[in-house]
Design goal:
Chain A: Keywords: Oxidoreductase, Thiamine pyrophosphate. Chain A: Its cofactor is thiamine diphosphate. Chain A: This is 2-oxoisovalerate dehydrogenase subunit beta. The complex is a heterodimer of chains A (about 325) and B (about 300). Chain A is α/β, with parallel strands linked by helices and about 325 residues long. Chain A has two domains: about 1-185, Rossmann fold, CATH 3.40.50.970; about 195-320, 3-Layer(aba) Sandwich (Rossmann fold), CATH 3.40.50. In chain A, about 35% of the residues lie in helices and about 20% in strands. Chain A is built from twelve helices and 14 strands. A seven-stranded mixed beta sheet of chain A has the order 3-2-4-5-7-6-12, sandwiched between helices. In chain A, helix 7 links the parallel strand 6 (about 145) and strand 7 (about 170-175). In chain A, helix 1 runs parallel beside helix 7 (about 150-165) and helix 8 (about 210-225) crosses helix 12 (about 310-320). The radius of gyration of chain A is 19 Å and the shape is globular. Chain A starts with a strand and ends with a helix. Helix content of chain B is about 45%, strand content about 10%. Chain B is α/β, with parallel strands linked by helices. Chain B is globular, with a radius of gyration of 19 Å. Chain B has helices at about 15-40, 55-60, 75-80, 85-95, 125-140, 155-165, 185-190, 195-200, 215-230, 255-265, 265-275, 275-300; strands at about 70, 110, 115, 145-150, 170-180, 180, 185, 205-210, 235-240. Chain B starts with 16 loop residues before the first helix and ends in a 10-residue tail after the last helix. In chain B, the strands form two sheets. Chain B has a seven-stranded mixed beta sheet with strand order 2-3-1-4-5-9-8, with helices on both faces. In chain B, strands 6-7 form a two-stranded antiparallel sheet. Chain B has one domain (about 10-245, about 255-300): 3-Layer(aba) Sandwich (Rossmann fold), CATH 3.40.50.970. The chains are: A alpha/beta (about 325), B alpha/beta (about 300). The interface between A and B is medium-sized, with 34 and 36 residues.
Chain lengths: ~325, ~300
């Protein structure tokens, strides 16, 4: 076991993926010499060379487009989008090309491209460094969308993502980059598409992913002091959804709260609420409640504590579903 | 390859049967599409390359089977100049059995071997850079060829791609089919400066070709193609063409005078006049061949989408 931060776990995962397959490339803005703004690619260019770890111009559309071309001819590019808010110039390539080419070719054409996006707020930064754009991509057929929440998953999920033949948007919880955990290097993890029960409970199910998993775990610990048994599920895969694990839990607890940083309106929580009402209708004791950001641009850093879901808002939602 | 340009007839050099036959095949294919639309036997949309058929025929003569070709919304000619499969392309456009992509891609999204088209302007260029980089590393001497139009130069992705291609020395042949009009907007209203100047901004070699003579185009292209292959670098070939047909179907906004000018710039009547016997023979051959293909594809069942 080695104690690693989430950022370092991703770094070790990328390193293992590059060691395992010479076709794996890393590309993005400042990923080489600097090692990325969050140091996720730290040292990779030094160890694997400039041919495999490529500092690109400031050109998100060009980065993803070039990665698609490299993947067409056999490479497995891992692209870093420096911040969530910078992915929008690349949306054209991701949505119109990366997601659709494999579907249009009925699977004959494989595009094993990983688009890594540090996401979410809570680091005292600006709007385009703090956004949660996952719903744009889960709405797009043809993409796998995943989010890691902790160092152990980060280490294995990034390797699984690189090995996967599907295009993947890989969200990294920015404010958890510095969280530490024991990671067993070389050990496999839960498969990429699987959700995980990270805390067992019987009264309410909390569904979360990325940065909100930790918030939900802390909420569940506080709720326990009030005698409430709260189960927490880390979705891990946002598209496709692992409905088996989700339905098993909600059928048992009869109550569910979905938590994400992204705005509630037409966010992933809406899809989850609908799917749960379709699959668990006769076992539900209350409506599914969503906790998330507001329908505003992400606020300046001095206001972000009011924007981001926190313990109080999650516990309030737990109270509300239990009040039915 | 050295083309000896002599025996000029009406300004054109003698043309090989294979080249003129392909140009006429594409012409009859595109005309057949417009007829099918008129009769309501084809729906969706299409963009024909009427008047521009000679460009991909000239370019394809310089391409290696291992080169990669990226095409755009006006891509039937690009495909047919590279692949002798008009029946599979028509079936693709009509969603019938035997389609080159099971009818999923349609007119604008064809994936076949080393051919890939996309309808959104400029999107293919960064992808072509990626493929070119891979070809450079694995099979030096091979290149990625991307067809774009003059209108495409409004898209930002073109500049991201050219910047990367030149920085990273990608063997990329950009063929600009400059037909002077972006759907309905003339180049003068949508392009400031010049394509030559924009290529120069990146230090990328550029050459403009004015001829409609397939041999002349090929001869003028050859040094550029050689440069891309031997020195592994991007090059831009700008070829002046005339769009003889509408942007899509019946949506031509040009004035009668402009349409006359476009028709006068068309290669087809000039080749017909210069080489009447050869033209008549090949024209009839291709007219009949495409006619048979249309009849055949029309009675095929719908294509089946099966994931492989």
């Amino acid at each position: 076991m080695t104690v690693l931060t989430l950022a370092k776990a991703l770094n070790e995962g990328l390193r293992a993926a590059m060691d395992a397959d010479p076709k794996v490339l890393v590309m993005g803005e400042d990923v080489g010499k600097l090692g990325g703004v969050f140091r996720v690619t730290d040292g990779l260019q030094k160890d694997f060379g400039e041919d495999r770890v490529i500092d690109t111009p400031l050109a998100e559309s060009g980065i993803i487009g070039t990665a698609i071309g490299l993947a067409l001819r056999g490479y497995r590019p891992v692209c870093e989008i420096q911040f969530d808010g910078f992915v929008f110039p690349a949306a054209d390539q991701i949505i119109t090309q990366l997601a659709k080419m494999p579907l249009r070719s009925l699977g004959k054409l494989k595009l094993p491209v990983v688009v890594r996006i540090p996401c979410g707020g809570g680091i005292g930064a600006v709007e385009h460094h703090s956004e949660s754009p996952e719903a744009y991509f889960t709405h797009t057929a043809g993409l796998r969308v995943v989010a890691c929440s902790n160092p152990v998953d980060a280490y294995t999920m990034i390797q699984d993502a690189v090995r996967c033949d599907d295009p993947i948007v890989f969200f990294e919880p920015k404010r958890r980059y510095w969280d530490k955990a024991d990671v067993e290097l070389g050990a496999p993890g839960l498969p990429l598409g699987k959700a995980k029960v990270v805390r067992s409970g019987n009264d309410v199910t909390l569904l979360a992913y990325g940065p909100m998993v930790k918030t939900c775990l802390e909420s569940a610990a506080v709720a326990e002091e009030d005698g409430r048994s709260v189960e927490v599920i880390d979705l891990r895969s946002l598209s496709p959804l692992d409905m088996g694990v989700i339905a098993e839990s909600v059928n048992r607890t009869g109550r569910c709260v979905v938590v994400h940083e992204a705005p509630v309106f037409t966010g992933l929580g809406g899809e989850l609420a609908a799917r749960i009402s379709e699959t668990c209708f006769f076992r539900l004791e209350s409506p599914v409640i969503r906790v998330g950001g507001f329908s505003t641009p992400y606020p300046p850093s001095r206001l972000e504590e009011h924007y981001l879901p926190d313990l109080d808002r999650v516990l309030d939602a737990v109270d509300r579903v239990l009040a039915y | 390859m050295v083309v000896v340009i002599e025996e000029r007839v009406l300004g054109l050099t003698p043309v090989a049967d294979a080249d003129l036959g392909r140009m006429l095949r594409i012409r009859h294919f595109e005309r057949a599409l417009l007829r099918l639309f008129e009769r309501g036997q084809l729906n969706g949309t299409t963009h024909t390359c009427l008047g521009q058929e000679h460009v991909p025929v000239a370019v394809s003569g310089l391409l290696d089977p291992d080169d990669y070709v990226f095409s755009n919304h006006r891509g039937h000619g690009h495909f047919l100049a590279r692949h002798d499969q008009p029946d599979a392309l028509l079936a693709e456009i009509m969603g019938r059995a035997g389609a080159v992509c099971n009818g999923v891609g349609g007119s604008q999204h064809v994936y076949h071997g080393r051919f890939l088209s996309t309808g959104v302007q400029g999107e293919s260029l960064p992808v072509a850079v990626g493929v070119a980089l891979r070809l450079k590393r694995v099979t030096p001497g091979r290149l990625a060829c991307a067809y774009i139009g003059d209108g495409t130069w409004g898209e930002g992705s073109v500049y991201e791609a050219l910047n990367m291609a030149q920085l990273w020395r990608a063997p990329l042949l950009v063929v600009v089919e400059h037909n002077g009009i972006a759907q309905s907007t003339p180049t003068t209203a949508q392009l400031s400066g010049s394509i030559a100047g924009r290529a120069a901004g990146f230090g990328i070699p550029h050459h403009r070709i004015e001829s409609v003579d397939v041999n002349v185009i090929r001869a003028e292209l050859e040094p550029l193609v050689t440069l891309a292959r031997t020195e592994s670098r991007p090059v831009v070939a700008e070829i002046a063409v005339h769009r003889a047909g509408p942007h899509s179907k019946g949506d031509d906004t040009r004035t009668p005078a402009e349409l006359v000018a476009a028709a006068q710039g068309d290669w087809q009547p000039r080749y017909a006049e210069a080489f009447p016997a050869q033209f008549a023979r090949l024209d009839e051959e291709q007219r009949a061949s495409i006619g048979r293909i249309v009849d055949d594809v029309l009675i095929r069942p719908a294509s089946v989408w099966e994931r492989s």
